[in-house]
Amino acid sequence: MYDLMEEELFEYRVVELSSAPCFSPQADFNGKHDSLFFNDGVRRIDFVLVYEDEDKKDFDKRHTFQRKKRRREYLEASLMKMGMALEATRSVVDDKLIFVKVHMPWDVLCTYAEVLHIKLPIQPNDLASRPSPWRFFSCVTKHFYPSEDKIGREADFYTAPFEKDRLEYFYVKDQDNFFTPSMRSRMAYYILNRAPYEIRGNIKKFGITKLLDSGVYKAAYPLHDCRFNVRSTELGSPNERLLLYEEWAHPKSFYKMQPLDLIRKYYGEKIGIYFAWLGFYTLMLALAAAVGLGSFIYGYHTQETSTWSKEVCDPNIGGAIVMCPQCDLECTYWRLNSTCESSKKLCIFDNFGTLVFAVFMSVWVTLFLEFWKRYQAELEYEWDTVEFLEQEEQPRPEYEAKCSHERINPITRAKEKVPYTACGRCIRLSLGIGTVLFWILLILASVVAIIVYRLAVFFAFSAKLRAQDLKELEPFREYVTPQMATTVSASIISFVVIMILNILYERVAIWITDFELPRTKTEYENSLTLKMFLFQFVNYYSSCFYIAFAKGKVVGYPKEPVYLLGKYRNEECDPGGCLMELTTQLTVIMGGKAIWNNIQEVLLPWVKNLIFRHCTQAGSEKVIPRWEQDYQLQPIGKLGLFYEYLEMVIQFGFVTLFVASFPLAPVLALVNNLFEIRVDAWKITTQFRRMVPEKAQDIGAWQPILQGVAILAVATNAMIIAFSSDMIPRLVYYWSFSVFPYGDHAESTMSGYINNTLSIFNIDDFSNFSRPHNTPYWFKNSSTCRYRDFRNPPGHHKEYQYNMQYWHVIAAKMAFIIVVEHIVYFTKFVLSYIIPDVPVHVREQIKRERYLTQVIIHEANLKLTVDTHVSTVPNCLCIIGQSQIGVKIK
Description:
54% of the residues lie in helices and 8% in strands. The protein has 890 residues and is of the alpha+beta class. Helix 21 packs parallel to helix 23 (702-724).
């Protein structure tokens, strides 16, 4: 297959080493600032290459640039021999810069449209479009859509993969506009990535990417069609960038739906599918945010009426309960009502409404994924990516350049070239997996280090914040508990560590993926996606998993506490549980991440462009040509919007995995995404060069990752409610232990719950390593203190062992997890089954298009057969006549 492709690409006009160097024709700038054409005004610019003229360098350094010059001249000669037209123009601002404009003639466009299987119109769509369900409210909804008067509606066609020999069957009205600018740029970039620039012996080096990395060229990019805020009056400029800015990227359009068809037309399907997914995700978040906000409001209104929070704050109940020290020696006794404010805050998140919301979110995530599949199927049809398969995607230039081994293709049984043997591939994958595991272990080590920090700092905060001699802290004791101070400081440190590790691992992941040498760009991105997500998953979520499922679970009791590393006493949760700490952790990480990402995405590109224009002393954009205006913008990077996807998927994890502890997560995500859409739109429209359009059928490897997160979210939320919140112990007490035979009340009640959940400890049983040095003035002659657990009191025949209520609570927690998981998973299965992935009307249109394509191919084959027969018959008659004449002569 590889040999066949090589023959396809280079069977014509291969450059030989002995060829005389060809130089790009030079042309002075003609003064047309927004022109998208060569100086002749006819040939359209499909791509621009930028390099620095070595002849303008210092004489003593000039010899070091000769190799770069030879490579560049060879590449340009290759392009011209492949049929491309070039025109070079010196920079208006910096005379050392030269801009090489690339144009693809009609024949070359037709050739590569066939190679890339580009689908083009064959016939107008004759199926009636499905009426919108919102058409009855059009007088209202029209204000939330981009202006059709400006953008217009694209004509709907049936399409088929282009074939040059069957050109007459395609809907060609105008050769100049038959291929859109994004198609032309995509084909030009394909050729640039495969044009040779150096041949040494049997080794052929090719690809603009390598020349950009080595500094032979400074930049390579397609042109924006106009300035983002000024309409171009040049002929042939559709001003689509201006339309995108006005109807999409401008802040005044924040309430409007996205012009997805125009985004796809201008930037390509890959960018279009990202913004379609982001917009759909944000729209679905609105429902989750509304329910989450309702849950929060419900919790806020019940915090003052909650029985157990009132008992904590009651001076006769919470004020009379003496709690045991939470660290050794330096910590002292404290009253339960000192956590009054934190218990009220906990009521906001730990209530029955949160349980209902967690179950709702498990169903919501299923609906989101299923309806996205349907919407994606519609986009696949509308954007001609239904049958876009990986086989149509060409190998990466980096892969092709390393192909030195041969193998038998298991499908075609033909020989093909590959860059490594089966053994070599295993070695590469093993090294990659080993490196990823090493970095994941490094993250876990950082998490352990933060846990040690928490233990050490908690010891200091407990000693200081509860010391009675520090009168200046008295006003803050109600609001700042040792647990809260520890959690906030540890969360901030954790966020900083996460950001630092992200920067380091990003480079490592790219290096590993480059080393693995995937065949296509899709394979490359999928491999990098998996590595980056695994790392980010552990990096962002590990501390949250620790608080949710590990903290406060193995602490022992005051007589025999459990120690980490044999030195640090394990952390305990607040009397109300660890849910509030998990909420704080999520708030710090989600909020800090959103702020940092917006600084990176908005401020940094704007500052870089400002500095660049200042350093180049470029004045107004009106004095320089279109290609030079674009050069002053920031490059988008090799991975495009990969990091935007990663950011949103990590956010999706926060919204779904830990929503039981933070009902406001969807609200924060919704607000962030409303800004994110416009920020991303503004960034790529105004601050970045135009990206090379790419084909994409779906969101790639992110789809199975989202499905995996959705499945995991059911389990994590069920376990957070069971193990991190106080919901199950409260229900067990209400239904079983508040009434006979375990309780003293005549009917189920929450009264007495706090006293029931706190076990009694005799202070004489403290070991010498744990007994507090100091006691507060109010402690007097107390002989016992309380701690959070379900254990038998001192003097019991099973002293300090787990009591009956503990096993009831454990059984209830396990039963809750099993029942909730099975109900939610069954609901997810039913929803997945009854909601088809492809809408019926889309399936009909796909069948209609396939039918028309088959008819056209059949007619073309039939015509070819008839033409061949007609042209063959006269030749046969002529031969027969000649033979008969010959016989007669004889």
